[in-house]
Hints:
single chain, alpha/beta, Rossmann fold, six-stranded mixed β-sheet, 42% helix, elongated
Amino acid sequence: xxxxxxxxxxxxxxxxxxxxxxxxxxxxxxxxxxxxxxxxxxxxxxxxxxxxxxxxxxxxxxxxxxxxxxxxxxxxxxxxxxxxxxxxxxxxxxxxxxxxxxxxxxxxxxxxxxxxxxxxxxxxxxxxxxxxxxxxxxxxxxxxxxxxxxxxxxxxxxxxxxxxxxxxxxxxxxxxxxxxxxxxxxxxxxxxxxxxxxxxxxxxxxxxxxxxxxxxxxxxxxxxxxxxxxxxxxxxxxxxxxxxxxxxxxxxxxxxxxxxxxxxxxxxxxxxxxxxxxxxxxxxxxxxxxxxxxxxxxxxxxxxxxxxxxxxxxxxxxxxxxxxxxxxxxxxxxxxxxxxxxxxxxxxxxxxxxxxxxxxxxxxxxxxxxxxxxxxxxxxxxxxxxxxx
Length: 389
C-alpha cells in the first residue's frame, strides 16, 4: 500500500466516522450500486439495473423493509463505473464516505470487482458482486461476497458433460490471452480436462489478442488437431464471430463455452448459427420453475424480454442482502456497527431461494450452488442439466 493511498484511506475513514450515524437513523437504508451503465459491459449493467428496479418497486409496494419492529425506506443509489476499474474504485469511496451506504451491490466484472472488494474490505462495508467469478474477488476479504460461482468450477463440469454428450477425450481451446477472465478460464479448463483425459489431451491451445477479428488461422489449426470439441471462454459479444469463422474453415465439432456467454445479445448477434450450442452458467430463463418462474414473468412483463444471467444474479444478490439486513433483528443507527452486523448476517445466510438456484453463504463469500448446463434452443437459453456440489 503506497503512502499516498494510506493518506487517502485515512482521510476517507475520518469521513466515515463523521457520517457513522446517517444510514438508517433517518428511517432510510441506502444501498450503493457499482455497475457499468456505459462502456464495454453497459448492456449487462443496464440489465442489472432493470432487475434492481423490480426489487425497488416491490419494496415500495410493501411499504418498505421491516427490520425488527421498525420499517425502513430503502434507497438504491445507482452509480456508473463506466466499465473502468479506476472509476469503480472512486465510486466505492463516494458510496461509503459521502452517501453513507449500508452495503453495496457490484461491480459485475472481475476487473472492476477485485479493486472494489479491496476497498470495501478496508472500510468494513459489505459488497456483493453478482457476476465476478474470479476467486481473487473474495479471497481473504471477509466483507466481499458474490451471488455466482467461481470460474474454476466450470472446467470439471464441462469435462464431465462433453465426455457424456460427445464422447470427447481430445479438446481444443481458443481464448484471448490479454483478457483476465478468458485466460484464467482457459487454463482452468485445460487443467480439468487433462486431469481426466491425460496430459496432452488438450490437443490445441490457441490464443489471440483483444480486438482481433480474424480467428481463421487458429481455427484451421484446431481443425487439423483432431480435437473432438472446442472450448472458447470468450464474452457474449465475441462468440458469434468465432462460430461463423469456425464454419467457414470447415471446423465441424461442438463448440462449448462458459458463463461469459451469458448476458448481452449473443442470440441476437449469432442467430440460428448458435442454436444447439451449450455453455456452463449460473442461470437459464428457459424452463423456469418456482421463484425463477416468478422472476422471469415479472421481468418479461416489465421489459418485454427474458432476463439474462447478470440480471438474475443481481436480483438474487439484492434480495439476499435485504434478507441479511432483516436477519440482523435491528439497526442501531450507528453505521459502522450496522455494517458489521449486516456482514455477519449475510455470511450466515443458508438455503436462500434465488432465481439462479438455492444459495448458502459462508465466510468465504462464495455461495454453494449448482452449475447449470445451458443449451441454446430456438434462440432461448434453456436449462439442460446441472451439476451440484
